[in-house]
Amino acid sequence: MASTYLGGTHTETGYSITLDRSGNVYVAGLTYSSDFPTTSGAYDTSWNSWNSDSDVFISKLDGGLTSLLASTYLGGSSSDVGLSLALDTSGNVYVAGFTGSTDFPTTSGAYDTSWNGVDDVFVSKLDGGLTNLLASTYLGGSSSDGGFSLALDTSGNIYVTGLAVSPDFPTTGGAYDTSFNGGYDAFVSKLNNGLTSLLASTFLGGSGRNHGASITLDTSGNVYVAGFTGSTDFPTTSGAYDTSWNGVDDVFISKLDGGLTSLLASTYLGGSIMILVMLLPSTQAGMYM
């Protein structure tokens, strides 16, 4: 057994953790500390925020939690939050979250190198040693959007889900739902491994609030998304476990094909009362609750 602190003199939160094939531990989240521990040669060893906002951190420890092998900041001059972390078969590190920074680091040729407004989703790729930013892109529309979970398919494509307040959140032709449904929607987007192309992107939701919180893929490449919905008209499918909204906020679980063109299955899950609080350090935090 092992346990360790990780942080600086201010506030940190770890939101996502994963292991590489050697059992090393990667963790991502947010830090308000200008002295968060970084390592020599890491991609970014300097805190970026200038107004008491947060930076993303990504850190790598050995499996016994005895050594900090690599640690880096990632962010711009405003609030940046890392919420999900995954590794590909080559050991590269992918991070998704949301950013309010107009100067969040992006890379040449990335899908979207310009901030779109309020909060954008970001997806970034670093090498396993956290020394180089290999690819990084914004993803969003003119209002507030956040990426809460990502997963990789067997070809290395990246799927991300979260919430979109932007009616103009980018969708793609032929996707399951290209029209904003109201309130705020869940979204599911697919980018290529180099983060240069948006391969598919869809809204998912009803006329109330809808929030994609977790995503995974099966061995056939189908995409499963879970989250919560306050929509009485959230899309369900015939024969699903529960096709009727139960009250306040329900869990939803939905299955789409890998191309995000078809809703294969979708169900509510819940009772008459649900209290869900997600504490996010953003000036727009209330939007995410």
From TrEMBL:
Entry keyword annotation includes Transmembrane helix: yes
Keywords per UniProt: Membrane, Transmembrane, Transmembrane helix
InterPro entries: 6-blade_b-propeller_TolB-like, Motility_Chemotaxis_Reg, SBBP_repeat
Gene3D superfamilies, alphabetized: TolB, C-terminal domain (2.120.10.30)
Domain of life: Bacteria
Transmembrane residue ranges: 260-280
Protein name: Bulb-type lectin domain-containing protein
Taxonomy of the source species: Bacteria, Pseudomonadati, Planctomycetota, Candidatus Brocadiia, Candidatus Brocadiales
